[in-house]
């Protein structure tokens, strides 16, 4: 596995419909599990300082806890609130462990 893939945690720590925030160096990242797929975004909202992982996850949309901005965790697109999109990252689960590639976007950013 390439060095750009970073081990994060065991997949069992992230239940269906849950979000989980963590720090990787100076970076704050958020994981989400929806329909048994795992997605990763920056954890800090692009609008102001709030952690998306502490927001409300409804399907593939995370709602920011501070001003209710909404972001699709698959693409990072802001779907409500008119804020910038949030960055997304590629995720793989190997042998029950979650890895994130911090250099690979999961989807094109708008
Ligand atoms: S801080 Fe997230 S919408 Fe304002």
Describe this structure as you would to a colleague.
This protein is an all-beta fold. The protein has a single domain, classed as 3-layer Sandwich (Rieske Iron-sulfur Protein), CATH 2.102.10.10. 0% of the residues lie in helices and 45% in strands. The chain has no helices and ten strands. It has strands at residues 5-10, 19-24, 27-34, 37-42, 56-58, 61-63, 70-72, 78-80, 88-94, 97-101. The strands form two sheets. Strands 1-10-9-4-3-2 form a six-stranded antiparallel sheet, with no helix packed on it. It binds FE2/S2 (inorganic) cluster. The site of FE2/S2 (inorganic) cluster has 10 residues, from loops.
Strand content: over 45%
The helix-and-strand class reads mainly beta
Whole-angstrom Rg? 13 Å
Listed once per kind, the bound small molecules are: FE2/S2 (inorganic) cluster
Low-confidence stretches: none
What's the order of the H and E elements?
Answer: EEEEEEEEEE
Number of helices: 0
Number of strands: 10
Order of strands, main sheet, comes to: 1-10-9-4-3-2
How would you name the CATH homologous superfamily?
Answer: Rieske [2Fe-2S] iron-sulphur domain
Which whole number gives the mean pLDDT?
A: 92
| Total domain units | 1
CATH second-level architecture: 3-layer Sandwich
Query: Biggest sheet, open or closed, and with what strands and sense?
Result: 6 strands, antiparallel
Helix content: under 10%
């Amino acid at each position: 596995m390439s060095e750009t893939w970073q081990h994060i945690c065991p997949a069992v720590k992230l239940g269906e419909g849950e979000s989980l925030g963590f720090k990787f160096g100076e970076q704050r990242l958020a994981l989400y599990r929806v329909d048994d797929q795992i997605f990763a975004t920056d954890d800090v909202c692009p609008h102001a300082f709030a952690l998306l992982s502490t927001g409300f996850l409804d399907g593939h949309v995370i709602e920011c806890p501070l001003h209710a901005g909404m972001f699709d965790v698959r693409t990072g697109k802001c779907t409500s609130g008119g804020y910038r999109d949030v960055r997304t990252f590629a995720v793989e689960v190997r042998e029950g462990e979650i890895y994130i590639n911090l250099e690979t976007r999961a989807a094109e950013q708008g």
